[in-house]
Design a protein that fits this description.
This protein is of the alpha/beta class. Helix content is 36%, strand content 20%. It contains 14 helices and 15 strands. Strands 1, 2, 3, 4, 5, 6, 7, 8, 9, 10, 12, 14 and 15 form a 13-stranded mixed β-sheet that branches. A hairpin with a 3-residue loop joins β14 and β15 (404-411). The longest helix has 17 residues, at 74-90. The N and C termini lie close together (12 Å). The model has no long low-confidence stretch (mean pLDDT 94).
Length: 416
């Protein structure tokens, strides 16, 4: 097996298109979450989100004129931007890109509110639903941008996209990791993008009882509070991230900078329930334990955990119980969704980028708004403020609707 390293990173989230700046923002305890003004304009009050603004989308569109705005949705532009930044950060040349693989995670691109209204009016008028929209059909295909990525960067290796819900970003990284670790590729470009703040998406989360209740708190930045006893639902977000995975031999041969090593990972599925896991957390625990075994490290070796931590009652309770089962109650746990919100497919990739920077900077990021665990939560050690720490090994979790569970182990050096 070949050792795998991270040599490039890229992130696109609200007000931030540089991972180092984003890390500094989170380290200082700032939140990217605010009142959702789009929903407020529709008369829907008390919903918090972390939305990439229309102005930021326009900037992305102008930055990449080769992408057709009628074919590529805003999430595709964000993913393209994150990929571009990661390639530049890794200093890859065209020959290396022609040998690289591409692994992209994304989910549904839902119809705009304007389109829903248009279709409703047409149905009321004629009882027929014509298959048309202001955009092309390609616009609603989340994979459309993948072809643009391949063409623009002249990527010559295998190309895969996946839609593993909230685990899609981590699943993409695991797919690329497997190819590099077994020697099939020297370089894999792995990432994901999603716009969770689409109004129809927020409606879906509200209908299953998972969307945040901002009216319970003084301000929107207090709403996302993973593992806290007063947590009251997920805050949805827009975001994208990419990492460049590379064999250690290739990285060292070309003198590339290394952020972290990927020691191992595990992806598995369960069938307990479409929108939640078994309450004891046993499936999450099995996933984490398998990732440790594949990484040849023990639970005692893990210095820090980047939790899925969605700020919902059921997920955080199950994840806390799983962490306690595998690690006990002393390993420090962070959920950056407390500041970023949950960008669904994008979240796992974003959190791997931040985990790599935690290892590089030897700093644990805070879980904002955490005060105390709930009665149904297991005893875990939640990091409340940015804390310097020797981090040799870190485990990152991403768990998705439909029962897709992933855990990834990162390391500071090549000992794994």
């Amino acid at each position: 097996m070949h050792k795998v390293v991270i040599t490039g990173i890229g992130v696109t989230v609200k007000n931030h298109q540089d991972p180092h700046t984003l890390f500094a923002t989170l380290e200082s305890g700032q939140s990217l979450i605010a009142d959702d003004h789009i929903l407020k304009g529709m008369g829907i009050e008390s919903v918090a989100s972390s939305r990439i603004s229309d102005e930021e989308v326009i900037q992305l569109q102008s930055r990449y004129p080769s992408l057709d705005q009628t074919r590529v949705a805003p999430s595709g532009f964000a993913g393209f931007d994150a990929l571009t930044k990661s390639v530049k950060d890794a200093d890859l040349n065209p020959d290396q890109l022609r040998q690289a693989g591409l692994y992209f995670g994304t989910n549904k691109i839902l119809p705009t509110v304007d389109l829903v209204h248009q279709l409703a009016q047409q149905k009321a008028a004629s009882e027929k639903l014509p298959y048309q929209s202001p955009e092309s059909v390609d616009y609603y295909n989340p994979q459309t941008v993948v072809a643009d990525m391949v063409e623009y960067f002249e990527i010559g290796g295998p190309v895969t996209s996946c839609a593993d819900a909230c685990a899609a970003g981590a699943s993409s990284l695991i797919s690329g990791f497997r190819q590099v670790s077994r020697g099939a590729l020297d370089i894999a470009l792995c990432g994901a993008a999603d716009f969770g703040t689409q109004p129809v998406m927020q409606l879906l989360f509200k209908n299953i009882g998972a969307l945040n209740q901002a009216q319970l708190f003084n301000c929107a930045s207090e709403v996302s509070r993973p593992f806290d006893s007063n947590r009251a639902g997920v805050v949805l977000a827009d975001g994208a991230a990419f990492v460049v995975l590379e064999s250690e031999a290739s990285a060292k041969q070309r003198g590339a900078s290394i952020y972290a090593y990927v020691c191992g990972a595990h992806r598995c599925t369960e069938s307990y329930k479409m929108t939640s896991t078994e309450p004891s957390g046993k499936f999450y625990a099995e996933c984490m334990q398998a990732a440790l075994e594949k990484s040849c490290v023990s639970a005692e070796d893990i210095d820090h955990i980047s939790a899925h931590g969605t700020s919902t009652k059921s997920n955080d309770s199950a994840e806390s119980r799983a962490i306690e089962q595998v690690f006990g109650s002393h390993t420090p746990v962070t959920s950056t969704k407390s500041a970023l919100g949950h960008s669904l497919a994008g979240s796992g990739a974003i959190e791997v980028v931040l985990s790599a920077l935690s290892i590089k900077n030897q700093v644990m990021l805070p879980t904002l708004n955490f005060e105390s665990l709930g009665d149904d939560d297991a005893k875990v050690s939640v990091v409340k403020s940015a804390t310097p720490k020797a981090i040799n090994y870190l485990l990152s979790n991403s768990f998705g609707f439909g029962g897709v569970n992933t855990s990834i182990v990162l390391a500071r050096d090549s000992a794994c």
